[in-house]
Amino acid sequence: METASPDAFFAKLHENIGGRLFTVTVLDRKAGLAQRVYSSDPEAYPVSGTKPMSQGAWTDMVINRAETFVANTVAEFAIYFGDHALIESLGCQSALNVPVLDNDQVIGTVNVLDQEHHFTPERVQRCQSIVQERRDELVATLRGFKP
């Protein structure tokens, strides 16, 4: 079985999950760093170097407690995302961040953004299910990146 490149794997995951903007991040928890390793819009959200992991309610929810973050309006995510104006300028007014776990520890996130009120409970469940179904491949691919 041929192994897809990380970009091809993430592009296929984006195709399966959907979303106007789709990114994937990997975490280096010991160093406190996060790195975007895939972006469906590399002009607005380039795959780049590392940045410090921020602290706060979003990090506590998604990274520390491994809970999915759902915001269906800009107001719901603007308090957590300093780049909310850029996100909105791309036609995205809702956000979904699904943690990727390896041995009960979050090692990255799958991030999906779309129009306002896009993330119905059914869509959230579907996205979570796809991430879970592809978890082994996600973990292996994310482990290939070293922030």
Plain-language structure description:
This protein is α+β, with helices and mostly antiparallel strands. It has one domain (6-143): 2-Layer Sandwich (Beta-Lactamase), CATH 3.30.450.40. It is built from six helices and six strands, in the order αβββαβααββαα. A six-stranded antiparallel beta sheet has the order 3-2-1-6-5-4. The model has no long low-confidence stretch (mean pLDDT 93).
Question: Which SSEs are present, and which pair or pack?
Answer:
Layout: H1 6-17, E1 21-28, E2 33-39, E3 50-52, H2 57-64, E4 69-71, H3 74-78, H4 84-89, E5 94-102, E6 105-114, H5 121-133, H6 135-143
Antiparallel strand pairs: 1-2, 1-6, 2-3, 4-5, 5-6
Can you give keywords for this protein?
147 residues; alpha+beta; six-stranded antiparallel sheet; 36% helix; 27% strand; globular; GAF; GAF-like_dom_sf; GAF domain-containing protein
- Indicate the proportion of strand residues: 25-35%
Shape: globular
> Which sequence of SSEs, written as H and E, runs from N to C?
HEEEHEHHEEHH
**Major sheet summary line:** 6 strands, antiparallel
Annotation field: number of helices: 6
- Return residue spans where pLDDT drops below 50 for at least 5 consecutive residues: none
CATH class: Alpha Beta
Task: Estimate the mean pLDDT confidence.
Answer: 93
Stated plainly, the CATH topology is called Beta-Lactamase
The span between the termini is 28 Å
Overall CATH architecture: 2-Layer Sandwich
